[in-house]
Amino acid sequence: MNARSLIRNGCTALAAGALLFALPALAPAPGALEGGLAPDPSPPARARPVPARGDLMELGALGQGPQAEKLFKAQCAPCHGAKGRGDGPVAAALQPKPTDLTNPEFQAGRTDEELREAITSGKGAMPGFGKVIAPDEIDLLVAHVRSLAQEKK
């Protein structure tokens, strides 16, 4: 056997070995052949009842607790300000300016679900936080935003 044959046989063996390791990754997912599509491997989404307008306000101290205040300070205050008036340290550089969350017209014009959606997905220039804040923490933020109107009175 000459050197060329050894190289050819070595390359063939190497390719066959690589194929053996790659085959499991190339195999269709279980159930993919029966229905044509692979099943979604992610767990089913938890159904979460949507509170009606004002339900979070009825929880009272929920939005004024230390966890809600800490979340608001970390995620919202840079733009909306510590008191939610739209005067945070980043606000001066933003167009449009952040919303004054204490404004009675703003508060009256939005349901808790609309606030939850804005925090989760973003709205206008505001980015969404749904990928970095858990749903129960978003509920805390909604309750905190509601509590800001009470503090202004």
Tags for this model:
2 strands, globular, 153 residues, two-stranded antiparallel ribbon, Cytochrome Bc1 Complex, Chain D, domain 2
Q: What does this protein structure show overall?
A:
This protein has a domain at 57-152: Cytochrome c-like domain (Cytochrome Bc1 Complex, Chain D, domain 2, Orthogonal Bundle), CATH 1.10.760. Helices cover 49% and strands 3% of the residues. It has seven helices and two strands; from the N terminus they run ααααααββα. The chain has helices spanning 3-26, 32-35, 66-75, 77-80, 104-108, 112-121, 135-152, and strands spanning 122-123, 126-127. It has a two-stranded antiparallel sheet with strand order 1-2. β1 (122-123) and β2 (126-127) form a beta hairpin. α3 crosses α7 and α6 (112-121) crosses α7 (135-152). It is globular, with a radius of gyration of 27 Å. Residues 10-60 have low confidence and may be disordered.
Brief write-up:
With 153 residues, the chain is mostly helical. The protein has helices at residues 3-26, 32-35, 66-75, 77-80, 104-108, 112-121, 135-152; strands spanning 122-123, 126-127. Helix 3 packs across helix 7.
Write the layout of secondary structure elements.
Blueprint (H helix, E strand, L loop, with lengths): L2 H24 L5 H4 L30 H10 L1 H4 L23 H5 L3 H10 E2 L2 E2 L7 H18 L1
Antiparallel strand pairs: 1-2
Helix pairs in contact: 3-7, 6-7
